[in-house]
Amino acid sequence: MLTACLHNERELLLRIAHNDADAFTCLFNYYKNKIYTIAYKLTESPAMAEEAVQEIFMKLWIKRKDLPGVEHFSAWFYTVARNHMFTLFKRKAVSACRGISEIDPAYFFTNDAEERILLKETETIIKKALHALPPQQNKVYHLIKEKGYKKEEVAAFLNLSPETVKIHLAKAMKNIRAYCLAHMDSPAMALIAFYFL
After folding, report:
1. Alpha-carbon gap, residue 71 to 79, rounded angstroms
2. Using one digit for the tens of pLDDT, what is the confidence trace for 45-95?
3. What pLDDT does 79 receive?
């Protein structure tokens, strides 16, 4: 039994295959920390681990129609996660050899057209959500989430109190999530998109 919201793993996978976002959320909440732990152990990078979790669950949702046929889901899913991480390592190694400092996130996906299109759409919606933020929320989000500064550093830089920075970040996250939920066709995809924002 995975969680209190699940009585039968086979039933849960079947529900997900039929586009049940609540069932997917149940699975996501149960496995996200476990997958993150695997990713972090392999990368020793919180940012890379979070990126990997987002991509792995996005792939799982895209391939949801195949889930009812999976035997021993846990073992299968952990294998999928590890394989994804090894692929990510290979891509990173190639980029390092070529002197590429940053790779398009779509490069980590397979050549599956549906995956690349969905990722592109998700990125576009998130960018629009950021653009719609009030200026101060946008600044705080950018400095903390994209540049990696600590709240105290951002407070000093923007001449704000740490508590004010914390409030701006919380409001920014709330606004981004609301925008994603309103503009993404699938609540499950919105969940993946904003969980690690």
Report:
1. 13
2. 787 788 888 888 988 888 899 898 888 888 888 888 878 877 766 665 544
3. 84
Record: fold of 1-110: Rna Polymerase Sigma Factor; Chain: A (1.10.1740)
Which residues of the chain are in CATH 1.10.1740.10 domains? 1-110
CA distance 103 to 111: 15
Identify which has the larger pLDDT, 70 or 97. 70
Choice between 64 and 148, residue whose per-residue pLDDT is larger: 64
What's 112-197's CATH class? mainly alpha
Higher pLDDT, 5 or 52: 52
Give the count of beta carbons closer than 10 Å to the beta carbon of residue 173.
Answer: 15
Token digits of residue 167: 């409030």
The DSSP result for 42-98, as a single string, is: HH--HHHHHHHHHHHHHHHHHTGGGGGG-SSHHHHHHHHHHHHHHHHHHHHHHHHHH
Identify the residue whose tokens are 């039933």. Answer: 11
